Amino acid sequence: MRSTFWLAGAALLALAQPANAGDTIKIGFVSTFSGPTAVIGNDMRNSFELALDHMGRKMGGKNVEVIYEDDTFKPDVGKQKTQKLIESDKVDFIAGYIWSNVLLASLKPIVDSKTMMVIANAGPSQVAGELCSPYVFSTSWQNDQTPAAVGEYMNQKNVKSVFLIGPNYAAGKDMLAGVKSTFKGEIKGEEYTVWPSQLDFSAELSKARASGAASIFVFYPGAAGVQFLNQYSQAGLKATMPLYTAFTIDETTLPLQKDNAIGVPGAQQWVNDLPNDANKKFVSDFRAKFKHGPSFYGAQAYDAAQLINSAVVAVKGDTSKKEEMRKAMEKADFKSVRGAFKFGNNHMPIQNFYLQDVVKGTDGELGLKTVATIVKDSQDRFHDKCPMK
Amino acid sequence: MLLVVEQLLNGLQFGLLLFLLAAGLTLVFGIMDFVNLAHGSLYMMGAYFAATFAAWTGSFIIGIVLALGATLLLGMVLEYVALRHLYGRDHLDQVLGTFGLILFFNDAVRLIWGPAGLSLPLPAWLTVPIQIVPGVFYPSYRLAIIAVSLVVAALLYLVVMRTRVGMLIRAGASNREMIGALGINIRLLFTLVFGLGAALAGLAGLMQAPILTVQIGMGENILILAFVIIVIGGIGSIRGAFLAAIFVGMIDTLGRAYAPDLLRHLLSPTAASTAAPALSSMLIYLLMAIVLVVRPEGLFPASKR
Questions:
Q1: Is A371 helix (H, G, I), strand (E, B) or coil?
Q2: ipTM score of the complex?
């Protein structure tokens, strides 16, 4: 009895497997869906799902199956989930990744198996440079680009000196290096904090104040950004040391940061009010479906779905044609919600960065608004190190 | 020099906050011989209650008072309903049971309050920095934490050392079977002690909430530090927890503040700034390892039979 049961199961599996591989486009999506940063992962998943809705849940005439995996904010778990998606689910595409350290840990199995990949957030310098791969694309940015734009803006504001604070992991180091690459004033000090366990920044804030710097720059994504802003304003530094940020204030953190975030500038390649049609549709449909606005994480996930779709359409659903898919993706031939952009030789976007500010809307709710374009067609600093031409 | 004063205050404030968490843990562990991994969940619940009640009533103070009562009650109910059945069991069973409670509380919070977390805004009078000595401004809220923690520590000392309940608690820590045999209602005592421990954890959580965020799993990282403290201080010893907490708070803060500068003399600046956070976060565990080797019973153990 038992053996017939197993036999039947095995037969079912054997029958199901090839049928699946032919009719469905399988996408693995790795992000954080548990713990406090689940807010980010949910925003990405919601946006990815919305993009599929907009495509009628089909790509190149085929059904789409998305397998979401939770990296639990840990590089080792992220790597396991990535291997599972590649080896047992045999996905055609892999997408997502919030954290640079999770991405770096997961990269090897993806590149080795030549799985087509679209990174929807993390942008470690290594992936833009020496670790670039023909199969890896990004719909976000290279880490240094955003803080480099903030550095430019600080030059425009004639800021004389800055104290840099960031978390001690791959992205934190890239971010501080990014500001340093463009900021022309003096760097009065630089502090790295333990990531992600350190929650109290009193020692660093005291040092920043004692350094006599004219301003502070920080990179604290997710909940850490809420905590930093709390402590920064409680320390009374808002009046004396203006704060400049990258990836610290967004739609996922604003409901908790509230008034602390008002008047704190940041840079981003996408803001919810960018006036292109694709973006208007994305933002308004997202609001209608989820009752709140999307964040840049979501915008990047939405674009990731579109980029994958452009590849599948180009090969009419035959995902074995990887070379053709790669060529199609390199054209970035879709209506990005950030407006038109191009891919560099390393498959990182060449794109504009905007100054964003926190404003109170008519309903009293805080939101983000584009103030100005800081840099046009910014390309990351590492594309020369990428052997692909 | 002024920076040193400020960093010492930072260390003291962090240490005192850790004491509140560790005091409850050491009471429960020392007196009831019960390993409570869910102590961090009570810390989280304190913060969630405070944020909710403060939003309902519109008052920060009323919010935290109600939240303290609510965590006390929650602790007692929890003890009565669930933990009571684990007392006779092996420590490993208790770890498993209370680990299950962590998962339960995390998901309960997700269901009730949603995954996004809450914030507990401070009243305006607590957000202005105060000049303590000329040239040193310190956030008034952090000073308030120092003051409240010291008062609680003093009260706890008085209760444990000078009252009848405190005598029973100390007796329980020394020899549980004996006070049971002497006709003390040990069940009620345990419920009270657990409720007190829960309220202390809740107090730590709600005081930390305006500095950090109120979020799921907020108690898990800090609970590890609390365990380190009770190991260093000696299990069951309030005095040990107090001194060890301040010690750990100082080491953590001063390590973060000065390790990068010290390391810069030895390493290149980039290597130093990367290595320093890692090293300073190791210091506490190094200390614990040394204490475990030299004095396995802790620096200030509660007196045994």
A1: strand
A2: 0.85
